[in-house]
Amino acid sequence: QVQLVESGGGLVQAGGSLRLSCAASGRSISPYDMGWYRQAPGMEREFVARISWSGSTSYASAVKGRFTISRDNAKNTVYLQMNSLKPEDTAIYYCKRLAGDYWGQGTQVTVSS
After folding, report:
1. Predicted local distance difference test score (pLDDT) of residue 101
2. CA-CA distance, 90 to 26, in Å (whole number)?
3. In whole angstroms, what is the distance from residue 96 CA to residue 106 CA?
């Protein structure tokens, strides 16, 4: 069993930056692909970014070039660096271990215009 805890969300002005963290406990994340998803009010949860066990990354087109996913296996933590934030990035951001469908509780990101 693995537990995922997101942190780092908050309120930021458009054009600002935030770094989200996803700390895992219970199992090592190193053999697994990890991802970030988000859900805006009234919308379905959507894919944001993914990092493979080997470090390969992929991004949704809406965030490509602005967001960077990374991982520190020694700290059992995955990060999402978010730059040039836009009001449409406002959502609850969730961390996920892609094998076994494990989710964190989410962290709120609000971008004001």
Report:
1. 86
2. 30
3. 10
Residue range 30-65, pLDDT digits in tens = 999 999 999 999 999 999 999 999 999 999 999 999
* Angle (nearest 5°) at CA 102 between 50 and 46: 45
- Residue positions counted in the chain: 113
Stretch (H or E) spanning 5 = strand 3-7
Label residue 29 exposed, middle or buried (CB < 10 Å: 0-12, 13-18, 19+): buried
Q: Are the C-beta atoms of 106 and 94 separated by less than 8 Å? A: yes
Question: Which SS3 state, helix, strand or coil, does residue 9 take?
Answer: coil
pLDDT tens profile 3-37: 999 999 999 999 999 999 999 999 999 999 999 99
Token pair of 54 as six digits: 């080997």
Pairing between β-strand 107-112 and β-strand 10-13 as defined by DSSP bridges: parallel
CA distance from start to end of the chain: 40
Cβ 107 vs Cβ 20: under 8 Å:
yes
